[in-house]
Specification:
The protein is of the alpha/beta class. The chain is 49% helix and 12% strand. The two termini are 42 Å apart.
Length: 452
């Protein structure tokens, strides 16, 4: 070979036995994830194994593989298995072993519920490292596509129409089957197969129809409760003032499904949701509360609601369950999608200052609006008025501006760097577990950066 280049020889043998410790730089993310995984309490994982049959792969190693896979955009169990052969980092984590994709997928599905406890343990480790002390958080949500097509969504009206069509076709096929020359007249059609296909389809539609009816019944009970409350409030107001309250009387809710009520036949617990820009997609609403100082996710949950109006109480509940030694949330920053009087009151009831935009903020605000100071408010002002006044001060505007630079970059990196744009698993419980896994992977990736 030419002397201008470094020599290489793929047939040269190792003079000493190779060690996986020599394969990665000291500050590599894979080393950091292995180090954190070794500190986790995995008693719940280990006790689930009966000890019969062949020896299982250690949960610590399989967790580290999943954490590193999700942190680097490798989510599929088949791709993770391939990476234990192709990737130095995965090979290091797996210690030169190669768990097959069935083992990885089964492990992930089996221990989804336990991931929530690991999420909290990692936050405690971040606190012990001197990195995390919860105080102010930014709360936001993002629509992540379900493992289902929106074209497999069936509306109530279409379900009734399709069910009638299929039943009519079954009757027609039964009549044809009674004729001796049916095969000739239908060009060799396999009537039993056609009947079976339609009967299976009707069973699927019936299941969807019953689920839509169940959801409609739940909605009716909630709407009925709200209706009765509004009626009683108007009646009390009329008795107090002696005058008829202004505005229209509340309309009683209507029982039963609506024409547009839908269910997806692939993942019945996902929902059709509007996406940014235009259009709709079959998705879940993934929520994350991000610590303003560190950009670590400290609260996360999955919602089936297409908007964020009901997510503040759920976020407050999740935050209240965190260990006290890692700090207590004192401030929440959220956009206008979270605003409601009840949400503001819920924050104040938990001694949390809400900074929730009352309306959508536009870019390039006039100079007068950017630097003006609000007028003082009375001491007995309601919670919304107090929050509006806080948001109008220069300090409030400066603090609220941190929302965009904390929570939105987290979603951007999860979707475009970690390449997590669609759930692999189906069903609400499974999706919750997978979102736990995604948020753990983000926190490990972020902790590695902060530690460095």
């Amino acid at each position: 070979m030419s002397s201008n280049f470094k020599q290489f020889d793929r047939n040269t043998l190792f003079l000493m036995p190779p060690s996986v410790q020599d394969w990665l730089p000291e500050n590599h993310l894979a080393r950091f994830i292995v180090e954190i995984a070794s500190q986790l309490d995995l008693h719940a994982f280990k006790s689930a194994y009966a000890g019969r049959g062949s020896k299982a792969y250690h949960p610590e190693m399989l967790l580290a593989l999943l954490f590193y896979g999700y942190a680097t955009g490798v989510h599929s169990s088949r791709k993770i298995e391939e990476a234990t052969y192709d990737s130095v980092a995965f090979r290091y984590i797996a210690a030169n072993t190669h768990p097959d994709h069935d083992t990885i997928a089964s492990f992930r599905k089996r221990f989804l519920e336990e991931l929530k406890y690991l999420f909290v343990q990692i936050l405690k480790i971040a606190h012990e490292m001197g990195i995390l002390k919860i105080g102010k958080i930014s709360l936001d949500g993002t629509k992540i596509k379900a493992n289902a097509s929106k074209h497999r969504a069936l509306s109530w009206q279409h379900a009734l129409k399709l069910e009638k069509q299929l039943k009519d076709e079954i009757e027609e096929l039964m009549r044809l089957a009674e004729k001796a020359d049916a095969a000739d007249s239908l060009n060799g059609m396999d009537i039993p197969e056609e009947l079976s296909r339609r009967q299976d389809r009707i069973s699927e539609i019936t299941r969807a129809r019953k689920e839509i009816e169940r959801r409609a019944a739940q909605r009716y009970e909630k709407e009925k409760e709200a209706y009765e409350q509004k009626r009683s409030e108007r009646k009390a107001k009329a008795e107090l003032t002696g005058k008829k309250p202004r505005g229209q009387n509340p309309k009683p809710p209507r029982k039963g499904p609506r024409k547009t009520d839908q269910m997806n036949l692939t993942d019945g617990e996902s929902r059709i949701m509007p996406q940014s820009g235009k259009g709709f997609k079959q998705a879940y609403n993934a929520q994350a509360g991000v610590d303003v100082e560190t950009m670590l996710i400290v609260e996360e949950h999955i919602s089936q609601c297409p908007n964020d109006k009901k997510e503040i109480p759920l976020a407050l509940k999740g935050l209240s369950l965190l260990p006290k030694d890692i700090g207590k949330v004192d401030t929440i920053l959220s956009d206008a999608g979270y605003f409601s009087e009840s949400n503001v009151e819920a924050c104040e009831a938990e001694h949390v200052k809400p900074y929730i935009s009352i309306h959508r903020d536009y870019h390039n605000q006039p100079l007068k609006d950017r630097f003006s100071q609000p007028d003082p408010i009375p001491d007995d002002a309601d919670p919304v008025a107090r929050m509006r006044q806080r948001l109008s001060t220069s300090e409030g505007r400066k603090l609220y501006a941190k929302r965009k630079s904390t929570v939105e970059p987290v979603f951007g990196i999860i979707k475009h760097v970690m390449r997590f744009r669609q759930f692999l698993l189906r069903g609400l419980d499974a999706v919750r577990g997978e979102w736990d896994l995604v948020c753990i992977a983000w926190n490990l990736k972020r902790l590695h950066t902060l530690k460095a």
